[in-house]
Each structure stands twice: as C-alpha cells, then as structure tokens.
TrEMBL record:
Organism annotation: Dactylosporangium fulvum
PANTHER family: BLL6902 PROTEIN (PTHR30137:SF15), LUCIFERASE-LIKE MONOOXYGENASE (PTHR30137)
Organism phylogeny: Bacteria, Bacillati, Actinomycetota, Actinomycetes, Micromonosporales
Domain Luciferase-like positions: 15-255
Highest taxon in the source lineage: Bacteria
Pfam families found in the cross-reference section: Bac_luciferase
Protein's name according to its UniProt entry: LLM class flavin-dependent oxidoreductase
C-alpha cells in the first residue's frame, strides 16, 4: 500500500491511420472506455505539424470538446500546450470555454516544446529564448485566469478562471525549471522516457517540493496563490503480462526499437546496452501484474509523493503493431483494462465511480 492514494491516468499520442472524422470518434471511444474502467484522467498530447500516424491532435482543446460531451467524470488533460507558440489570452479563453463544457474537468499542461524547436519558425516565433517566451506567456495566462487587467489595459476576462488556475501543469526538464513551476503554482508533470528516474527525475521532484516548502507559489497572482497546492504526475510505460518472460517476448520489438535512442542519450554504443539497461531507459514497468506493481513501487520518482501515475497507451499499441495489427482503440483499452484491473489495485488504487 502507498502512503497516500494516487490517481490513475493514461497518456495518448492519438496515433492513427484513420481519416480525421474517424480519428475523432476513436478519441471519444478511448475516453469513454477509460472512464468506464474507472480511470481518473486521460492526457492527450499536442503534436504540431506532424503526420496523423504520429499524433492526430494538433489542437487538443478542440479535440476534447466532443469528448467532454460524451464523458461525465474523467479528467481531460492536455500534455502539453507549447506555450511560446500560443497566444496566451486566446488560450485562456479557449481553455475556459472547454472547461465549462466539461464541467470543470480540464487539466492544462504547459511546456516550452523542446521537441518543437524546429517548428518555431513556421509559427513566426524566434526560438532563441523559449524559456523567456514561456515565462512571458505564462504571466499573461495567469493574469487572465485571475481576473486581472491584461497587458497594461483595463480589459480583463469576464469569467471565473480560478478553478482552472488550480489545474495547470508544467513539464520541468531541470531542477531550476521545477523550482520555477513551484514558484508560479503549477503542478510538475514528468515522464520523458529518456529521463532516468533516479538521477534526473528525482532531483527535479526534490527541487520542486523543496521550493514549495521553502517559498511556495510566491510568483502566482495573489488572487489564486492561497488556493494552490503542489501536484506531481509521473508518466510511465506499464505493461503487465501473464509472466515476465511472456511480457518481455511481447515487448521485444518495442525494446529493440528503443535501443539506439537510449544509447544516444547515454552516449554509449547500442551493442553495449543490456536488456535491463533498455527497460530502465524507457522507464518501463513490466512482467506479471505483481512485477509491474513492484516496479512502480520501487521507482525512485513515483511513490509516495506522486499524485498521479499515468500509463502510456502507445506502448500498449506498439505490442499489437509488432504483431502486424493496426493502432486501434480496442487495443489500447485492453491494455488499460489490465493495468486498472490487475496492477494498480496492488498499489492501493481503487476505480473511480
């Protein structure tokens, strides 16, 4: 059992080979199915200027509108909006509109978009200092949600954004950006597969919690600062099979495809990596349901501090693609069912109703 309850979520890239209308229906079915399984939240990735098979939701807030109508309880998370490429006042208005449709279920992740630096020019944005752009846009967004006058004018948003302001996340990639997230009152969402849990993610978490304990959200608007609390969300690859040997056999194609990427990150030869090196490198928890639960429990960056454990659906789909099958909602839901039914309860999680 964990020291405190956590919420169970999933993270989808919305990979698809389907045409747009069908892709939207697939996203609805994924969230409806996950809600029925008791999941607390689902996070949808933003992919800018990529082919649909790599991610079919360049505008997650728009994609979530029909999902909000067809679901009732599950949280709708965006992971993440590339804030330097986004006009923050328009983002505030769009997010508040979606949050109203969803009945206060939106959780909005924000990032500098390190993976999208090469796309800044297409958006007419200078990529020389994305950190400063992020901070500038975050300031406008927080002012808007707090009901403050905007950009030196007497104009403001005439909607209560204080609820949404308590559900903002940042994806810190360093201890300093984690401290910045704490000072501005944002949650910390982490989980890039190549960031080692012990040597990279643990220091980020420690910095975030230390900054919150030491100074708190001192840079958040005074209207919302007393309402804010620290939040941690860990994204992980989770795959539970009947046995460790069976799970590793299922995952062989995925693990081998990850070998070069992990080797490049570590600066070593791909041939020198062991299977355990690759498993650790992609933050994978696998084996039997008990094995996967033990892996999550032993993860240096998760329990007991983490508030959300978030499973990546892409891994579940990759197993079936390796067997010659297409990315399908049913594939993802079968994997999510195993996690919710067999693994998460071993850590004290109970399905939401």
């Amino acid at each position: 059992m964990t020291a405190k309850p956590f919420r169970l979520g999933f993270f989808t890239h919305a990979n698809t080979a389907s045409p747009p209308a069908e892709a939207n229906e697939e996203l609805i079915r994924l969230f409806v199915g996950a809600e029925e399984l008791g999941y607390d939240i689902g996070f949808l990735a933003q992919h800018l200027l990529v082919r649909p098979e790599l991610g079919s939701a360049p505008s997650p807030l728009v994609s979530f509108a029909p999902v909000a109508v067809h679901t009732h309880r599950i949280g709708l998370g965006v992971a993440v909006v590339t804030l330097p490429l986004t006009e923050p006042l328009q983002l505030a208005q769009d997010a508040l509109t979606l949050d109203a449709i969803a009945g206060g279920r939106l959780q909005l992740g924000l990032g500098t978009g390190a993976a999208n630096i090469d796309k800044y020019a297409a958006y007419g944005v200078d990529a020389s200092d994305p950190g400063k752009l992020f901070d500038d846009h975050l300031g406008v967004l927080l002012d808007a949600l707090s009901g403050r006058p905007l950009r030196g004018t007497d104009q403001r948003i005439h909607a209560d954004g204080t609820g949404l302001a308590q559900r903002l996340w940042r994806t810190p990639g360093s201890p300093e950006s984690a401290r910045r997230a704490a000072r501005t009152g944002l949650g910390a969402l982490f989980g890039t597969a190549t960031l080692d849990a012990k040597t990279v993610q643990r220091p980020i978490i420690d910095a975030y919690l230390d900054e919150w304990r030491t100074v708190g959200p001192v840079e958040a608007p005074s209207e919302i600062a007393p309402l804010l609390t620290p939040r941690l969300g860990g994204i992980r690859n989770i795959y539970a099979g009947a046995s460790r040997a069976g799970a590793l056999d299922d995952l062989n194609r995925f693990l081998e495809s990850s070998r070069k990427r992990i080797a490049d990150v570590r600066g070593v030869s791909a041939d020198d990596l062991t299977l355990d090196d690759i498993i650790a490198g992609v933050n994978l928890k696998t084996g039997s349901a008990q094995d996967a639960a033990e892996g999550l429990r032993a993860d240096a960056a998760l329990l007991p501090e983490v508030d959300y454990i978030i499973a990546v659906t892409g891994l579940l789909e990759a197993v079936e693609v390796g067997r010659g099958h297409r990315h399908t909602v049913d594939v993802a839901l079968r994997g999510l069912e195993r996690i919710a039914r067999d693994t998460a309860p071993l850590l004290g999680w109970t399905p939401a109703t």
